[in-house]
Amino acid sequence: KRTTLDLDVQYYTKKSKKHDRILGLEARTIDDFLESKTVASTGNAYLAYDPEKLNYQIYSFFIQDKYEIIDEKLFITLGSKFGYNEFTNFNFQPTIRASYLQSDNHMLWSSISRAVRTPTRGEDGITVLAAYSGSTALKFGRAQAWTPSSRNNPVLSIWFEKKNKYEVTSY
Hints:
0% helix; disordered C terminus
């Protein structure tokens, strides 16, 4: 059983004719209960969580600035997310993105970002299985988006990921 309460607030401001800024805050609290599984005939646990009941929080803040380099054609977006959780502690996730509007319904974009994955509850405190203690990834992306009509937004994406600091811990 899991109960999640999430608060997400975003603020958009136009700093100038060619500069937009978005700020955001997120706070999430998660209360879960993962019941250990036992073999009926022996009563021995084959999957046990320690502790079975846990409450944890995730906090984050982001800032993103979008600059128009060539009028209504070329845009550069710079930003970062700053997060904290009990599993990976403080993390910094910068990003840079370039987008080129080829026509009113066709955009080409590319980005480089650092992403940090928050481990799932099932990866911490399992007595029988291996668990991950967190990972980071450096992501390079290129995508092309087009809009055949104002009602559809199909996107074609190609991604490459390089993972590092991937630790495996056995219990």
